[in-house]
Specification:
This protein is an all-alpha fold. It has one domain (2-245). The protein has helices at residues 2-21, 25-35, 40-64, 70-90, 99-120, 134-151, 155-166, 171-197, 204-227, 230-251, 259-318. The longest helix is centred in the last third of the chain and has 60 residues, at 259-318. The radius of gyration is 23 Å and the shape is globular. Belongs to the 4-toluene sulfonate uptake permease (TSUP) (TC 2.A.102) family. This is Probable membrane transporter protein. It is found in: Cell membrane; Membrane. Residues 298-307 have a biased composition (Low complexity).
């Protein structure tokens, strides 16, 4: 029972982060299952079975709060399902020990870019509203789906920063669209795992516990992402991308950093992330105050102009 409670709380926390930042449910849940000795294929399969329910509820919640661009969902979700099914069927024979750190390095670079861009510049409106093309979203979906199935998570960490970096879709809609399209990915991955593994090693009770926690958190996360300022949300997403992928690289065979070095790097990264968030919040408040002053000034000018016209009209009426 204690294990099931821990799994439910993990599912709740992971979905709260995933639904508000566009990533981390699969990575968090799979990490826990691997830590208790589940083999990689069974861990990924268990998490994806739970995600069928959590992504359905999360997608519906994001749609309810207006966080979904359905064109993006279809353009990235269908190729993502193909990639996920392929990744699930080959996971038992494919080693991702080399591919994982390489992917983490790419994602780390994207995370640094997203963190810097939203922290110091904010959301650029130059490309906002421009369509995201199929030739960009389809390969991205294939790659993200494959990584998600083989790594037990990766749809959000691959898809979210890439679309955020384009500057064509506001952060809340990036997160809502990624979360909604993930339903297609999890269904395809689950079918692939069941075809390749059957039910061997998959604990349906654990999947149910993860599902219950995730379903509880999904509506709250969808509401939360709508009310976080885009600049602050972008900094938060960029920071979690950097921290997550730095940890993967430090633990990989490429670096094999010892505990002291890893701890020091993480302390620095968390301090930088906290500073970036604080700066984003300060700049958001400053810009919001400036906009309010401009609106008030425009209103005062309008009232003054109305008063002048009224004064000019009164003598004419008297004569």
């Amino acid at each position: 029972m204690r294990t099931l409670i821990v799994l439910a709380l993990t599912g709740l926390g992971a979905q709260l982060v995933d639904g508000s930042l566009g990533m981390a449910y699969g990575v968090t849940s799979t990490t826990l299952l691997l830590a208790v000795g589940t083999n990689p294929a069974a861990a990924s399969a268990t998490v994806h079975l739970a995600e069928i329910g959590t992504t359905l509820v999360s997608g519906a919640s994001h749609w309810r709060f207006g966080n979904v661009d359905w064109r993006v969902v279809l353009k990235i979700g269908v190729p993502g399902a193909v990639g996920a099914f392929t990744g699930a069927t080959v996971l038992s024979s494919l080693s991702t020990e080399i591919a994982e750190p390489a992917m983490s390095l790419i994602l780390l670079a994207l995370g640094v870019y997203v963190l810097g861009r939203f922290t110091f510049i904010g959301l650029s409106s130059r490309n906002l509203g421009k369509p995201l093309r199929k030739r960009f979203l389809s390969p991205l979906g294939l790659l993200a789906g494959f990584v998600d199935a083989t790594g037990g998570g990766g749809w959000g960490p691959v898809g979210t920063p890439a679309i955020l970096a384009s500057g064509r879709l506001e952060p809340r809609k990036v997160i809502g669209s990624i979360d909604t399209s993930e339903f297609l990915v999890t269904v395809a991955a689950s079918i692939g795992f069941l075809a390749g593994l059957g039910s061997e090693g998959i604990d349906l009770t654990w999947a149910a516990a993860l599902l219950i926690g995730g379903v509880i958190a999904a509506p709250l996360a969808a509401w939360l992402v709508r009310h976080i300022p885009p600049r602050v949300l972008g900094s938060a997403v960029g920071g979690i991308i950097v921290v997550t992928n730095a940890r993967t690289l430090l633990n990989s065979d490429w670096l094999s950093a010892n505990g002291t070095v890893s701890t020091a790097v993480h302390v620095v990264l968390y301090l930088v992330w906290a500073g970036a968030l604080a700066y984003s919040v300060r700049e958001y408040r400053r810009n919001a105050a400036r906009e309010r002053e401009l609106v008030q000034a425009a209103g005062s000018a309008g009232d003054a102009a109305g008063g002048t016209r009224k004064t000019e009209e009164e003598p004419a009426a008297a004569s």
